[in-house]
Amino acid sequence: AAAAAAAAAGSKIEYFKLADIGEGIAEVQLTELFVKEGDLVKEMDNLCAVESDKASVELTSPFTGKVVKLHYKTSDTVKVGSVLVEIEVAGGGPVAPPVEVPTTPAPPQSPVPVVPTTPVHTSVATSADLRAPGVLATPKVRHLARQKGVDLKTIVGSGPQGRVLESDVVVATQATAAAAPAVAAAPAT
């Protein structure tokens, strides 16, 4: 249906696939989506964040257009080569039949080397908005936060570009633990 609508509008559906992010990683966990169906995205806008046991990576769009379909949701496991997002782009000329889908994987491969430059894109914002969309944290810090029951979105990271460090999670855990006895002790006096 999305392809038919795109054909009527003179646009084309591009498929953003999970590229090989290196080190023999065959699958990742989708940790965050920065877009939803119907959103307009520009080339280099963040689409999602993925995490493996070795790395956390924010993936950027190689296309400018409208998000027409998200194939996965947060916490899903995604295999390398799987289509993550379908993006409708304008001016694609006549739309090829769905047979073209297997021949278009080359463009999605290009954002992977560009991913490390994503913080440069976000640093154009004011110093108050220095943090990238979502929460910057390593897989180890995310795991610690899950163990301690700490929501990373409530922590202001002390690392570069607002990255949440292990020490930030420990401080947040201690602050929560210190606040709980104080509240419990207040009614007793």
Offer a few descriptive terms.
alpha+beta; 4-stranded antiparallel beta sheet; 189 residues
Report on the architecture of this protein:
The protein is of the alpha+beta class. The protein has helices at 2-8, 106-109, 111-114, 118-122, 139-148, 166-185, and strands spanning 11-17, 27-33, 40-41, 46-51, 56-60, 65-70, 77-79, 83-90. The chain has a four-stranded antiparallel sheet with strand order 1-8-6-3. It has a four-stranded antiparallel sheet with strand order 5-4-2-7. The chain starts with a helix and ends with a helix.
Architecture blueprint of SSEs:
Layout: H1 2-8, E1 11-17, E2 27-33, E3 40-41, E4 46-51, E5 56-60, E6 65-70, E7 77-79, E8 83-90, H2 106-109, H3 111-114, H4 118-122, H5 139-148, H6 166-185
Antiparallel strand pairs: 1-8, 2-4, 2-7, 3-6, 4-5, 6-8
The biggest sheet amounts to: 4 strands, antiparallel
Strand order of the largest sheet: 1-8-6-3
Fraction in helix = 25-40%
Q: What is the alpha-carbon Rg in Å?
A: 20 Å
Question: From N to C, what is the helix and strand string?
Answer: HEEEEEEEEHHHHH
What is the overall pLDDT average? Answer: 74
Strand content: 15-25%
Shape: elongated
Number of beta strands: 8
Poorly predicted regions are: 93-132
- Number of separate helices: 6
Helix vs. strand class? alpha+beta
End-to-end separation: 66 Å
